[in-house]
Structure formats: structure tokens, C-alpha cells
Amino acid sequence: MHIPSIIERKRDGHALTDEEIREVIVSYTQGTMPDYQMSALAMAIFFRGMDARETTSLTRAMLESGERMHYPDDAPRIVDKHSTGGVGDKVSLILAPLLACDDLWIPMISGRGLGITGGTLDKLESIPGFRVGLSHEEAVRQLQSIGVVMMGQTGAICPADKKLYALRDVTATVPSIPLITSSIMSKKLAESLDTLVLDVKYGSGAFMKAREEAGALGEAMREVGEAMGVTIRVCYNAMDEPIGCAVGNALEVAEAIDILRGRGPRDVRELVLSLASEVSQVDAAQLGRWLDDGTALGKFRAMVASQGGDAASLDRFEEVHRAPVIREIRSPASGVVTCVDAETVGRACIALGAGRSRADDAIDPAVGFDRIVKVGAAVQTGDLAARVHARDEAGAIEAEKRFLGGFACE
Ligand code: URA
Questions:
Q1: Residues 6 or more apart whose Cβ sits within 8 Å of residue 127
Q2: How far is 183 from 181, CA to CA, in rounded Å?
């Protein structure tokens, strides 16, 4: 097939055939289609879009560029959750071990943080020794013994997405619904799931700022998943303030451990229970009991130990990564908190060193914010609004300034 003609057809607003889409993905994965042609095609897709058939076809081609997970015949139901990302989103750390208390397997393949949205792998790697690079055989063995595994995308899973995502990141073609849908769904479908719950975020800290955009993304992902035989549940959740009271890799793990002990901020617990009950065989009350009685924490510990992590460190996690400077941020006014802007907090966190500007940047697990006051709380002038954890005094002062720029009460 003549690749420039395919690019030209998409540029002019035509739908591509399944064969054309497959040819593009096979050629790009094999390296016979160069980055400059793929960049042009991604930009044409960005402007012209793709219909449901094209998006499903693109997802299938990306899925077939690599291997799928496979399980023994007597495996229980295989379920997972995917969130389109947010600030302070530590839900996966709690939800995956919680679902494993039910008779389910959760083979969760997660990503790293890029932009203002944090990544589950980065959070997990703040647990000393925790290994996210597991082989397929190791993953299945762990599912057989514990029911849950949290790992990164291996080189064998969706190599087309790995290459294309990196290219989109540097060609301003990330925020395209067909490209996001095929990227996310190809990786999730490679887990060979029975049921997937999608947590589609909208608001200042999300990819999709408006509810309508989030709706279009959620529906596109539902259509692709259902066309490929997976039961899809779509939930929409606002992402205007950070989730919970902690943002930053180790700080979020500490908060997740708190929730797994039946404590912690109510919004995180409620979000976990509402998403988990979409795919679980038991109700939210039973899921809540597994948080309160330590069953889910037991699963998390077992998973940490099985993946090489120091499970004993979970009992003193606040001490594992202690930032050199911890500064209290005080409310400049009295009233009811009306805004703790998620995007502002996310950007301040990246400036502290918790996130990446480039995919190969190192991150600092210790930095971020905790004890963040929630919207709706009543505060007096001088009350604690948050604490910043920083590498040095100058970083802490700058982060405080940024945080207060997104903070309002009236
Ligand atoms: N996450 C992904 O894996 N892919 C996208 O395109 C966007 C978010």
C-alpha cells in the first residue's frame, strides 16, 4: 500500500479501510513506515477524527502488534479498572488488592506519570524494592497465588502503542479521542479481560476539561471494548480538586495505606467503593468491610512482598521518604474553601520534582503536598491549608506560592 495516499485520504476527511489501518500499524511497528509519515497521519487523525469502526480497527491493529495475556482454563473472572488520570489519584493502589479479596483476578497494567497526572508505577516504585517489570509467567503465577498483580507494559504488549504514544507526546497529537481510545483500550484488551470499569475524569486536573468531552471519550472507549467482547462500565468523575489530601508519589502511597486500614479521606474511600462495586460480585458494604478489617491490606502486603517490595516498610511509610523540608501552608483568609485547583496543585508538584517533563526524567518520590484541605471545609485565617514536602527551602516557598494561587475561600 502507498502510505502517502493513506495520509492524504485522512487529511481530506475520508474514513480509512480496516486494511489501510492494519497496514499502517504493521509498517510502523516493523519500522518500514518512518516517524515523519506517522506524525503526519497522527495530525490528520487529530484534525479529522475517526468513526467508531475506524477506532475499533485501529485498537485491534495495535492490540495485534503484540501479545495478549492468557490464563489457565479454570481462572476466575478477570477484571480491571482504568482511570483517564487525575491529580492525587491513588485509587488503583487500593482498588486492585480490594477486588482480589473477591474471587476475581486483577492483572493491572499501569503507566507512569506524564504531564500533571501521576502514574501508578511511579507510586508503587516508592515502595523499597518493588518490581513493576514482571514477565507474563510471573504475572500469572502471582494471580494464581494472590489474585492481583500491578505491573508495567512489557515490550511484548502493544509495541505499536509504545512507539506511537512516544511520537504523539512530541508532536502535539495526544488529546485526540480516537488516538487516546485506541492507546488505552489496546493495552487493557491485552489483559484479556471479562469486565473493565472506566473512570473518566473531567475538570481542571483532567485531560478532558469539559463533561461533554469526557462523555465522548467514555462512549468511544465503551464502543471499542464492547465491539471486542468485553463488558464495559463507564463512570464519570469530576477532577477539579485533588483526590484525597495527598499528592506526590510516596505521600499518595501513605494515604492509600491509610484507606487500606479503614481510615483516610472519605472522598478516596467512596470513589474506590463506587468503582469497585461496578465490577465486583459483592456489594459496596462487603467491600467496605474488607477495607475496615484489614483483608484488603493483607492482599496489598502479599502483592508487595511477591513483587520484591519491603512489606514491613508499609507500617512506617511516612519515614521511608522524608523530604528535607516540610512547610506548613496557612489559609490567608477565613470562610468556606471554594477552590483547591487540581491543575495548579499538579503543576506545583511537577515543579517540586514529583513528575516528569520528559519521559526519561528521574522523579523524587518524597516531594508533594499532604494534609490538603478539602473544598467545602470551613477555615479561619492561619489554619492549615496543606503541607508542602520539598527538597529545599526555596522550592517549598515557590510551591506554597503556587498552591495559594489555586486556593480560594469565601
Ligand atoms: N493514556 C494512554 O495510555 N494513552 C493515551 O493516549 C492517553 C493516556
A1: 253, 304, 309, 310, 313, 314, 320
A2: 5
> What domains appear along the chain, each with residue ranges and CATH number?
3-49 (1.20.970.10), 79-315 (3.40.1030.10), 322-409 (3.90.1170.30)
Closest alpha carbon to 324 in 371, 367, 370: 367
Compute the distance from residue 50 Cα to the ligand 1 centre, in Å.
17
**Calpha distance 281→144 (Å, rounded):** 19
- Secondary element (H or E) of residue 385: strand 384-390
Identity at 11, one-letter amino acid code:
R
Residue-level pLDDT, tens digit, the chain, 410 residues = 899 999 999 999 999 999 999 999 999 999 999 999 999 999 999 999 999 999 999 999 999 999 999 999 999 999 999 999 889 999 999 999 999 999 899 999 998 876 777 789 999 999 999 999 999 999 999 999 999 999 998 889 999 999 998 899 889 998 899 999 999 999 999 999 999 999 999 999 988 899 999 999 999 999 999 999 999 999 999 999 999 999 999 999 999 999 999 999 999 999 999 999 999 999 999 999 999 999 999 999 999 999 999 999 999 999 999 999 999 999 999 999 999 999 999 999 999 999 877 767 889 999 999 999 999 999 999 999 999 999 999 999 999 999 999 999 99
pTM across the whole model: 0.94
d(CA 98, CA 273): 9
Q: Which of 264, 247, 217 minimizes the C-alpha distance to 341? A: 247
| DSSP for 113-138, written as a single string | -BTTB--HHHHHTTSTT------HHH
- Annotated catalytic residue: which of 112, 168, 201, 269? 168
Q: Is-contact 346 206, C-beta < 8 A?
A: no
183 is catalytic: yes
Span from the CA of 174 to the centroid of ligand 1 (angstroms)? 8
Distance CA 4, CA 18 (A): 17
- For ligand 1, residues with CB inside 6 Å are 111, 165, 174, 179-180, 183-184
Question: C-alpha cell of 299?
Answer: 492482599
CA–CA distance, 126 with 338 (Å, rounded to integer): 32
Phi, psi of 72, rounded to the nearest 5 degrees? -65, 160
